[in-house]
Design goal:
alpha/beta, 15 helices, Rossmann fold
Length: 336
């Protein structure tokens, strides 16, 4: 870690004035920001290949809190840069129902894709409305395709896959290809096994031929990529030149080369040692949620808006991890 500077080096006069940001509105305080990770980049490359091949679908699975939902958001922003600004990309969030309803299913889809009239009419009218909406969006793009992410897809019932196939087939008859990307927990793999045993080849062939196992942070290199985003890619206010790291540690950033990326090895070791201290025996796979909470804790509590330290030491990182709830979550994960 970077050594603490002398008192004179800690003077805020050494750095230009920080831009004004109203209290509680910085992205570190709101949690509203997206940064790429190694895993998101790998997921992007995989999904881009599926889209290039016009695959009907694939599934992405992993344990909770790894950042899969944020990865969907990131891909939704970035894929149009490769496939064209008019590429229709939609995300449906699966709700928890005791019994599937065709009307509710198409109502949820219409609502999530942004249709102006998601709730009117019976199931057949909602289905037709969704079909026409997808046709309109696809024809406005030069590629005549639809990309549909389904988040929390482990909640889908078998009959709902049938309704998805109906939409897929109707679009295919209209010359439009649809790629459905199921994103969910590890139960997706078990569901596919059940479909294989039940000889439901039509479901597997449409939506489950391809798979990607989404992982958390497994080593210091993964962590360094995540942390470098706070140093280099992030910026707030927009076009200000102030990354998140610089905003909260301006003197250390500007004059002593302090970067979160350089903390990666030490921070990963602290996570690993804390696991050992609490008897956690599974291989280290840090969910992105708890890394971001750790970084946010460190920046808020020890940066310019908190204790106003010039930089972070290992004890402060350890405190930030503890405050994130990581150990409690991992203890529960090992039990189940």
């Amino acid at each position: 870690m970077v050594n603490q500077p002398s008192p004179i080096e800690n003077s805020s006069a050494l750095s230009p004035p920080r831009p004004y940001v109203a209290q509680g509105t910085h992205p570190i305080e709101t949690g509203r920001y997206l940064l790429p990770t190694n895993e998101i980049i790998r997921m992007y490359d995989t999904v881009a290949q599926w889209i290039t091949n016009r695959s009907p679908g694939g599934m992405i699975y992993g344990r909770p809190r790894l950042g899969k939902s944020r990865a969907i958001t990131y891909l939704s922003y970035e894929l149009p840069n490769e496939f064209g600004n008019h590429l229709p990309i939609f995300t449906m969030k699966c709700r928890q129902y005791k019994q599937p309803s065709e009307s509710s299913f198409f109502e949820d889809l219409l609502n999530d894709v942004g249709h102006a009239l998601p709730f009117n009419g019976k199931a057949n009218l909602k289905r037709d409305r969704l079909y026409r909406y997808f046709v309109e969006k696809a024809e406005r793009s030069a590629q005549k395709r639809i990309i549909l992410f389904i988040d929390d897809a482990q909640r889908l019932f078998e009959i709902q896959y049938g309704w998805l196939m109906d939409i897929y087939n109707e679009l295919d008859s209209a010359g439009i290809s649809m790629t459905v990307i199921l994103v969910g927990q590890e139960e997706l793999v078990h569901q596919r096994s059940a479909f294989i045993q039940a000889k439901k080849a039509q479901i597997i062939g449409r939506f489950m031929v391809h798979e990607y196992n989404f992982k958390g942070i497994v080593d210091a290199d993964d962590m360094a990529v995540c942390l470098s985003g706070y140093d280099n890619i992030s910026e707030y206010p927009e076009n200000s030149g102030w990354s998140f790291t610089r905003y909260f540690f301006p003197d250390g950033f500007d004059h002593n080369g302090c970067r979160l990326e350089n903390c990666a090895k030490d921070l990963f070791s602290i996570f690993t040692n804390l696991r050992k201290e609490h008897g956690l025996t599974r291989a280290t796979e840090i969910p992105m949620q708890y890394l971001t909470l750790t970084v946010e804790n460190a920046l808020r509590h020890f940066g310019a808006n908190g204790e106003d330290l010039q930089w972070l030491n290992n004890e402060q990182w350890k405190s930030s991890i503890t405050g994130s709830g990581y150990i409690e979550a991992e203890t529960y994960h090992e039990v189940v």
